[in-house]
Amino acid sequence: MFSGKVVIITGSTSGIGLEIARMFAAQQANLCLNGFGDPATIQHEITSLESTFSCKVIYHPADMTQPNQIAQMIKTVFDTFGRIDILVNNAGIQHVSPIEDFPVDKYEAIIKINLSSAFYGIREVMPFMKAQKWGRIINMASAHGLVASPFKSAYVAAKHGVLGLTKAVALEAAEFGITCNAVCPGYVLTPLVEGQIASTAKARGISEDSVIRDVLLAHQPTKQFVKVQEVAEMVRYLSSDAAASVTGSSFSIDGGWTAH
Ligand code: NAD
């Protein structure tokens, strides 16, 4: 479905972003991976994707806190492939703390990586997408873009911001064949969630098992973590021609969490 299309996925060295990259590679799209990680592991992933599927994969190490590096990544992708079709703004971090103890540098990093990086990336790809009159922008928000939880003030603020950004961009791009949508997963068992189990246990003074059962999955009526493959499938649909009229919307994939 995406043969010849060029896709940038931020934060695609791990978790949800990596699965989205694998999904697009399997559809013969050309990719730019991004994110932190061991260079040998990243190179191994690139070699594996290129040898398994008919696609070309590059990696750019742009730090999502740095607008200049984001612009440089977009330029490199255009210079390499001559087009940019799909941007998935997926990079994200979390920090869990009562607001009165929340480190200011953590707050600023979360706003930069989870919200501002999407603004900077969209700003750079928009001229290319407008010129070709086709584009898909998908912002990885969260159930925390729709509802809040205690001790996640920075993340909740950033993800609510992502939904506002999504709507504004959708309106600006609507007449250019470009759609912009947000995906709102519930809890997906990735390194990001594994990392917050311990900190949530500390913040609430309970065991890690209790965090999984009584805090995380308590929100999800299915009592199951969402799978990375399920999130990637939603991204695949939103990137398709079948979703040409779907724009400015957010899509929950949260096991019923936000139905409460
Ligand atoms: P993850 O920790 O597995 O992956 C995060 C990715 O972002 C990694 O590739 C990491 O290297 C990259 N990254 C972090 N800081 C970066 C920076 N400064 N510059 C460039 N890359 C950076 O996390 P995940 O769970 O796969 O999360 C991916 C997205 O999905 C995030 O936006 C997250 O908020 C969102 N999300 C996750 C869940 C969940 O339960 N896991 C739920 C809802 C939304």
Please provide a written account of the structure.
GO terms for molecular function: 3-hydroxybutyrate dehydrogenase activity. Belongs to the short-chain dehydrogenases/reductases (SDR) family. It holds the Pfam family adh_short_C2. Its EC number is 1.1.1.30. InterPro entries: 3-OHbutyrate_DH, NAD(P)-bd_dom_sf, Sc_DH/Rdtase_CS, SDR, SDR_fam. This protein has 260 residues and is of the alpha/beta class. It has 2 domains: 6-186 and 227-252, NAD(P)-binding Rossmann-like Domain (Rossmann fold), CATH 3.40.50; 187-225, no CATH class. The protein has 8 helices and 7 strands, in the order E-H-E-H-E-H-E-H-E-H-E-H-H-H-E. The chain has helices at 15-26, 39-52, 67-81, 104-132, 153-173, 191-204, 208-216, 228-239; strands at residues 6-9, 30-34, 57-60, 86-89, 135-140, 178-185, 250-253. It has a 7-stranded parallel β-sheet with strand order 3-2-1-4-5-6-7, with helices on both faces. It is globular and about 55 Å long. The termini are far apart. Nicotinamide-adenine-dinucleotide binds at residues 11-17, 34-37, 63-65, 90-93, 113-114, 140, 142, 185, 187-188, 190-193.
CATH homologous superfamily heading of the largest domain = NAD(P)-binding Rossmann-like Domain
Rounded to an integer, what's the Rg over CA atoms? 18 Å
Percent in strands: 5-15%
Helix content: 40-55%
* Order of strands across the main sheet: 3-2-1-4-5-6-7
Most strands sheet: 7 strands, parallel
- Spans of 5+ residues with little confidence (pLDDT < 50)? none
**What best-fitting shape do the alpha-carbon axes yield?**
globular
CATH architectural designation of the largest domain:
3-Layer(aba) Sandwich
Protein name: D-beta-hydroxybutyrate dehydrogenase
EC number: 1.1.1.30
Family: Belongs to the short-chain dehydrogenases/reductases (SDR) family.
InterPro entries: 3-OHbutyrate_DH, NAD(P)-bd_dom_sf, Sc_DH/Rdtase_CS, SDR, SDR_fam
